[in-house]
Amino acid sequence: MAREKIGFIGTGVMGSSMVRNLMKAGYPVSVYTRTKEKAKKLIEEGAAWSASPKELAKEADIVISIVGYPKDVEEIYLGAEGVLAAKEGGIVIDMTTSSPALAKKIFAAAKERGVAALDAPVSGGDIGARDATLAIMVGGEREAFERCKDLFAAMGKTAHYFGAAGSGQFVKMSNQIAIASNMLGVAEAMAYAKKSGLDAEAVQQTIAGGAAGSWSLTNLAPKMLAGDWSPGFFIKHFLKDMRIAVESAEEMGLDLPGLKLAKKLYEELSARGMEDCGTQAIFCWYEGE
């Protein structure tokens, strides 16, 4: 049985690995990114190239995107050269962490053209994208979700449907809120262990197996201790997510002091020119670097 033709927009840290996993699963994939050079390796590995989101949408059964910011999402779907300027029928899936309100707007615009739209942000970072172990959180029509189960299985370990358009983004905001405070806890624990004169690496390995255990403690604390600030997830993108979470929480009348504190400290790092570092660089705040 022939696989659906996939159009994929965004070939950054996450997108490149997701495209590779789709091709490994037998999907024919066309890609678009603003700079063709960034997609060179994927093209060499078998992906086709499209010159614009509109051109990509004409040939694809399913369009997937994972880009930087909500403004980018809006442009690639609703712009004059965007996906919905050309696509009729089929499915579009935005996997960017974006605004719930924008997800609803895209859903409505897609529906007018007979296109099913899903918002399906992910968690798991560059490692999850590489290993196809992403957690995928989906909003939109259930029928479209059911049709995409095999597709999601090629990119992630779990894919859960949560309800109407925007639901996937609300779940991702919950995820980011949990990570924000946890990142401070992990950095503080490692800073405390070092200041106490302990073998901080041994402390990390020990407490990661107990009640304090978390993905960040297991995967990012070692990078903190090694002074490795290479991005699995950029500070600038984490700040974008935290801003969306704060804004949507305020719209619901909910105060989130832990999230606001994390946002403040990351903003201080960004002001030091560290916005392109990985989120584990929050350790620098505690080290006074």
From TrEMBL:
Which InterPro entries does the UniProt record give?
6-PGluconate_DH-like_C_sf, 6PGD_dom2, 6PGDH_NADP-bd, HIBADH-like_NADP-bd, HIBADH-related, NAD(P)-bd_dom_sf
Q: Where is the 3-hydroxyisobutyrate dehydrogenase-like NAD-binding domain?
A: 166-282
Superkingdom as given in the UniProt entry: Bacteria
Entry EC no(s): 1.1.1.60
Where would I find the 6-phosphogluconate dehydrogenase NADP-binding domain in this sequence?
5-163
Q: Which UniProt keywords apply?
A: NAD, Oxidoreductase
* Presence of keyword Hydrolase: no
Name the Gene Ontology molecular function terms of this record: 2-hydroxy-3-oxopropionate reductase activity; NAD binding; NADP binding
UniProt keyword rRNA processing, yes or no: no
Active site at: K172
* PANTHER family linked to this entry: 3-HYDROXYISOBUTYRATE DEHYDROGENASE-LIKE 1, MITOCHONDRIAL-RELATED
Name the family.
Belongs to the HIBADH-related family.
Q: What is this protein called?
A: 2-hydroxy-3-oxopropionate reductase
